[in-house]
Structures are given as structure tokens and as C-alpha cells.
Amino acid sequence: MAFIFYVTHIHLGYDALAMLDSECARVGIRRPLIITDKGVLAAGLVSQTVQALDLDAGAVPIFDETPSNPTEAMVMKAAALYKSEGCDGLIAVGGGSSIDLAKGVAIMATHPGTLTEYATIEGGSNKITAQAAPLIAVPTTSGTGSEVARGAIIILDDGRKLGFHSWHILPKSAVCDPSLTLGLPPMLTAATGMDAIAHCIETFLAPAFNPPADGIALDGLERAWASIERATHDGQERDARLNMMSASMQGAMAFQKGLGCVHSLSHPLGGLVVNGRTGLHHGTLNAVVLPAVLRFNESAPSVVADKRFARMRRVMNLAADADIAQAVHDMTERLGLPTRLSQMGVEQSMFDKVIKGALADHCHKTNPREASAEDYRRMLQESF
């Protein structure tokens, strides 16, 4: 049986930020904590956000220590600030990392225990209640779609990169103003854009029956595939930026249907310590492993029966016999992104740890073909 649930209030367009103050009033947020990162703060995007609020700018507490991949330590630090400042809600301004960190804060500022207890694979989803702090998301990239998703990915203190899922941490409002992405650097535009493309493709291939999600994903794929190069090479191209922001949102709206091996691989890859630090970019990882996963999934019975690859070729404007995996690889290369894990510092000695994480990941079971440890090893080797 399909369960279809779309509840976020979404404001999408070049005037969307003007809706922020009324959305705070609608949700009941009077004393927000803004969650962001230092780059977004330096770019002036937080200042624009505060100006949209009918509040004294000096009275709005800001947490700007979001790392490139959100961590348990920063969730707990921000939650402590939320409590000490007497906040009653959250505004996340940034990419998926800031929005996911805010979701972690929404849990830990209002629930007892440790963050680990609320992880999906630890059976924690049902422990997250309506007491979660209300959250409004203001995305400044077009990639994760976290502004309309019920999940967050956070690196725990024990090194695991785990998912947290509950409708109670779904943002109450998504204020999607593409003007906030006009200054995004080319490589970040490309990497986050490939994340959106991966979401649209992977959720469309997931076997669950959810026709609305399929339609949303296909339309998002069409928009992103046609717009990503223009958005990357001309950051001021307003139509391309608008379509990329829409595709990002659509990918996440659709992936309530499920994702698959791309994400079950990219999650543990993102938790690796590479060159002395964690934080390989999630969207870039998705782009690198997507071709190998596409080849693995092309023969899945549900994919074949529903002619999923043929339908994707049509919206991607590819020839009827085109190799989609190769087309994705070529697009990634044209955008100037890495196309091999080895280019990102991943070593083959890390594969065992990644495979263990992939088999335990919440996306593993929703792939159209169940992957074995050896299947994952082949996909990693092909992507290396």
C-alpha cells in the first residue's frame, strides 16, 4: 500500500523571502534561532533573512558553526544555545547541512537522551514526537531538497553517518527563493545540482508504488538536466537557477518513495576520514557512484517492466538507445567535477568500512535490486 504525504508549505520564486515573517507568525515562532554556516553568513544571506523578519536584528541569535557535514557535537552545541536563548523555533539558512543540523536541533532541544537513540536504524523514528521544535527552512543551494524532506543525515560521535526520519522534523515551511543562489560558486552549483539529479533518478527507480512521486521526480529530472550546465557556467541565469531550485525541491518531495544504492554508498563514504578530515561532498559522491549504480539497476525486474530507463531518456532528451550511465558520467565531467573516487582521496583499503555501512544504511532496502557485499564492492571498484 502506498503512503503519500505532502504537507510542507512551500513558497517558490524570486520574491519568496518576503513571506518569511508571515510564515513565522503562522507557525508560531516568535524567538527563532538561526542555524547557518560561516560561508553563508559572510555572503550576507543571513542578513537578508533577518531583514525579512519583523524583529530587532540584534535580538536574533545565530548559530554559524555548521560543518560541511553536520555532526552530533554541533547539534548538541546548537541545542544548548537554543535553550539558553529561550528560543521557540528554528530558521535554517543554508544548504542541506544547515537544514539537517537544524533538524537534529529540533529533536535534541526538546527530547531527552542522546541523539543516537533517535537514529532510524536504531529504531528511533517513533521516539521523535510532536514536541520537536518547529523549523522553517530557507535553502541557499539547489541540491539536497532537505527543506521538504522528513529526514536528516548526521555524523555521530562514534563516526557513523546515520539518518533520522520523522514527519515531526519536516520543516513547517520552505521558503525557496532562487535569488539566494545567484552568487553560488560554479563547483558548488554543479555538485549540489548533481545531488538533485541523483535524487530524481534514484527515487524514480525505487520499486515502491507511488505514481505522484514518479511524476514529480521525472519533471524534476527534466528541469535539472536541462538547466544544470547553464546554472553552473552562468550563475546569474535566473531561469536556470529557478529550475534548479525547483528540481532540488522536487527530488526530495519524491524521495519519500525511497532511494537506493547511490545513497547507501554515499552516506558511509561521506563519513570517511580522508586526508585527515571528514566531509567529502555528498552531491559529488552521488555523481561519482551514480553511473555504476545505474548499470547495476538497469536489469532490475521492476525497472524493466515499467520501462523506467526509456522514460528517463525521454525527459533527458537522450537517444532511445543512449547509455544513461555514460551520459551521467559525461555530464559530471563537463561540469568539472571529479568522476572517480580516487580523485576525491578515497582509497581501496576503505572499501570494507564503506560496504559495512552501505549494507546497514536505511536506503539499502529500497533499491530496485538488493545489493550484496560483493555487488557493492564491484560498484565501488567501478567508481574508483
Automatic annotation (TrEMBL):
Its cofactor is Fe cation. One of its GO terms (molecular function) is 4-hydroxybutyrate dehydrogenase activity. Residues 8-178 form the Alcohol dehydrogenase iron-type/glycerol dehydrogenase GldA domain. It comes from the Bacteria. Keywords: NAD, Oxidoreductase. Coiled coil: none annotated. The keyword NAD applies. Pfam families: ADH_Fe_C, Fe-ADH. PROSITE patterns: ADH_IRON_1. Residues 189-383 form the Fe-containing alcohol dehydrogenase-like C-terminal domain. Its EC number is 1.1.1.61. Belongs to the iron-containing alcohol dehydrogenase family. This is 4-hydroxybutyrate dehydrogenase. The lineage of its organism: Bacteria, Pseudomonadati, Pseudomonadota, Betaproteobacteria, Burkholderiales.
